[in-house]
Amino acid sequence: MGPEKAGKTRRGPGRRATVPWLLLGLWVAVLAAVGPFAAKLADVQHDRAVDYLPASADSTQVAKIEDRLPGGEATELVLVYHRDGGLRAADRATAARQVAAITRANPLTGTPEAVPSRDGRTVMYAVSSTAPGTDEEKRDAFVNDVRDAARGTDGMSVEVGGPGALATDAAGVYDSLGGPLLYTTVGVVAVLLIVIYRSPLLWLVPLAVAGVADYLSMGVAYGLHQAFGTSVSGQSSGVMTILVFGAGTDYALLIISRYREELRRVERPYDAMKVALRGCGPAVLASSGTVAAGLLCLLAADLNSSRGMGPTGTVGVLCALVAMLTLLPAVLVLLGRRVFWPLVPAFGAEPRQRRSLFAAMGSSAGRRPLVVLAGGAVLLGALALGALNLPGPLKQQDSFVDRPESVAAMETLARAYPGQGTQPITVITPTGRADAALAEVRGHAGVTSAERGRSGGGWTEISVIARGAPQSAAETATIKALRADLDGSYVGGPSAQQIDLQDTNSRDRLVVVPIVLVSVLLILVLLLRSLVAPLLLVAAVIAVWGAALGIGGLVFGPLFGFGGTDPGLGLLSFVFLVALGVDYGIFIMHRMREESLSGAEPAAAALTALRSTGGVIASAGLVLAATFAVLTNMGLVQLVELGFVISVGVLLDTFLVRTYLVTSASVALGRKVWWPGGLSRGPDTEAAGQQEPVAVG
Question: What's the rounded Cα separation, in Å, for the pair 265 and 140?
Fold first, then answer.
């Protein structure tokens, strides 16, 4: 340490002692202020269909208008009584008696009528009530009351299905996400941190700070909802928690790694932390900014669930960033060197020289870069072909990992009423044209029956039963034909919602994907002062996304037994993998740039960057992949698919793309990787008039 720095050190012991405590006090005050709001996030979390549907679709308009009709939104159920050997007279009497009791106990919109199947084994009753309205707790209570009242007898089964029962079963899964998702995520991260740090204390610090960041993110997300009406769903809040722990732990790994390094060169922990933050702070800021920018691009989506995930995910990343750049350093400085026990970094000690796996990997990539690059590209391309084997669009009954009662009821109905509609289609038409619309609907070739329902606010409801089974090609054709023929009317209902979800996801991919690519590319160009290096990183993450989807196509149907692919999987996995993948690219390319500015040859710069950052990036990649893999243990297929694709993509990016492909491409391109910046012509050209950049990792 030079004289000037030494002088500054002597003048600052009070500051060194005060700043960490001030930061701790500030965080205590922030958490005290945010606490009441964080606890309210669950109150504004909704998982109704309208919270996921496209903002401008027919089915969304139907849901909104139904809320304003007398009684509000209707909860529709189907009671399915079945006996394999055929229903007996006593069975039918029991069913009628139970339905009558349900009618007396609940304000229904009409009297349920028995609809027997042709084979005499099944009878169904359609039950509808507007009493719950849009209150999800009341809806769930109504569904559970009906299930309690509808009891099977010896040999006769009773199942309660329909849209209301499906919504209740899905809400049960989302309600279970909060606790298990958090505990499982914490457990996974804790195990990995213990393995990485080999310390009985150190792993607790980043984990506790991530927990504080998660609590803060809940309060901020609630404030965002109150201020701007941002939708909060079980899916978006779950992903926000994953991002806080995944991205936050990644930032902690980078900061702690650099801090440990500086403790060997700087005597006092406070000063060592200042140097560490100056070293890795800019890259951490840039990487988190890239992730936030990528997620905010989801605001351009028309799908409510995707658009809501953008700001909530961004809140998670930014809260993790703030906590890791302020609270984590303060706690580490106050705990001192002993937090690293038993592997305490001593001042003046040289780090243990160990054989580096990443040095060996970099050397192999550096010897024959073009061969490695071509082989990796062929491998990723071959894996991407697996996407052709992805199952078709996910149907409602295939959305659950474990089959709930509502799905069992739908399957029984499909067997008992083959080729017949058992799920209503809802038409909302102007009241002045209701009679004409009803006649037109009844005359449609794809319609079995149609009944006029409630009227109010200038709109009238028509309940339609199609000839085709739910979500079959025949029913889909009927819905599309009704939309084309009924001018000024809206056609909705569960099957129409699935059609709108598929169509809107296709539209969103065309809009959001280019915005994400342009945004990320611009950030990389500004950060790396190059065009070739950013294009290389973006091409790499696109290849990873394709390969991860391809692996999903190879396992979703054959191995997991999934009956379909969530329509939003492609878009959401793309946004997350591009934003998070570029995250790691920033760390390694930033270090490569620093080595090049110091005069290292391109090949040496690439290999030094990999050797210096490879271990930290590998640890961060494992943690991030593991946190998203937690979603594969949840009860909804769309969450399992999303978690699987992202975790596999992060692993591919960490151990194949960053280590081999980016390194080999950088070696092969030489200084051209920094074109058209001054560094492409030599370090002296770039460094002229600029400050020396800081190191990463």
Answer: 61
Higher pLDDT, 683 or 441: 441
Distance from C-alpha of 381 to C-alpha of 547, rounded to nearest angstrom: 7
As given in the structure block, the two tokens for residue 657 are: 């793309």
User: From edge to edge, which strands make up the β-sheet containing 459-466?
Assistant: 447-456, 459-466, 425-430, 490-492
- C-beta separation of 49 from 231 below 8 A: no
Work out the mean pLDDT of the chain and round it to a whole number.
Answer: 85
Q: Closest Cα to residue 570, out of 497, 502, 630?
A: 502
Angle (deg, nearest 10), helices 13-38 and 269-296: 30
Distance (Å, whole) CA 94 – CA 513? 56
The strand pairing partners of 451, in sequence order, are 463
The amino acid at residue 430 is: P
Contact 477, 446 (CB under 8 A): yes
Confidence of residue 429 (pLDDT cuts 50, 70, 90): very high
The token pair at 111 is 């009297």
Q: Sheet harboring 157-161: ordered strands across?
A: 114-116, 122-129, 75-82, 157-161
CA dist 572 and 569 (Å) reads 5
pTM of the model as a whole: 0.83
* 257-295 residue pLDDT tens: 889 888 988 889 999 999 999 888 887 888 888 889 999
Sign of the alpha-carbon dihedral angle for 202, 207, 213, 219: negative
